[in-house]
Design a protein that fits this description.
The protein is an alpha/beta fold. It has 5 helices and 9 strands, in the order βββαβαβααββββα. The chain has helices at 58-66, 85-97, 110-115, 119-126, 190-198, and strands at residues 9-19, 27-32, 54-57, 73-77, 101-106, 130-133, 153-156, 171-175, 181-185. It has a 7-stranded mixed sheet.
Length: 199
């Protein structure tokens, strides 16, 4: 399951210091690079190759997350976070120790994660508060604010987020100074949005 062998570094695709569309409250979001799943219709196809992105030290990522006292926690997405479980476990343990919450989006089911036997996978599960688990299924749309497809499940690993509003908004658009547009969250029609972005 794990494919990146440097536990003190990780392959990062993108980082957003603040988001309202990727979990409860205002959160930092880290997208990792590399995913073995290859779900048809993936919203982040540029994040699938393990050779993309850039190498970032665990210490640097922890510093980014903890430097903003206004964020409630960290969301891990990708790519596939459990492909870099050891490094992300180290990040998540320190984020949780500082009083912030951790949410992990994964294409693996909870059953498969628990059966993996890899120490990094067990550590990351133990360091997370909430898991959004299961592969993306293009033909099973979901209206839930955090589920990309209806087959996916929310797994409350702690009580931190149980009973809370899970996402203040479903989709976020960020426009950079250069005019670049970043779309994050769960757009209702991802295929149509991709066509707009590439036209």
């Amino acid at each position: 399951m794990s494919s990146y062998a440097e536990p003190d570094h990780l392959r990062m695709a993108a980082y957003l210091p603040r988001s309202l569309a990727n979990g409860p409250g205002q959160r930092a979001v880290l997208w990792v690079q590399g995913c073995p799943q290859r779900c048809p219709g993936c919203f982040n196809p540029d994040f699938l190759s393990a050779g993309g992105g850039r190498s970032v030290a665990v210490d640097a990522v922890v510093g980014w997350v903890l430097e903003d006292p206004e964020t409630e926690g960290l969301s891990l997405s990708g790519g596939e976070p459990f492909a870099q479980a050891a490094a992300l476990a180290a990040v998540s343990e320190r984020v949780r120790a500082a009083g912030k919450g951790v949410l992990v989006f994964t294409g693996f089911t909870l059953r498969r994660l628990r059966a993996s036997g890899q120490p990094g996978v067990r550590r990351l599960l133990a360091a997370a508060d909430l898991l959004v688990a299961g592969p993306f299924v293009r033909n099973a749309p979901s209206r839930h604010p955090l589920l990309a497809s209806a087959n996916q499940e929310l797994v409350y690993l702690t009580e931190r987020y149980r009973g809370q509003s899970l996402a203040p908004c479903r989709t976020e658009f960020r426009i950079g100074a250069s005019g670049s547009v970043m779309v994050t969250g769960f757009p209702a029609d991802a295929d149509a949005l991709r066509r707009v972005q590439t036209s």
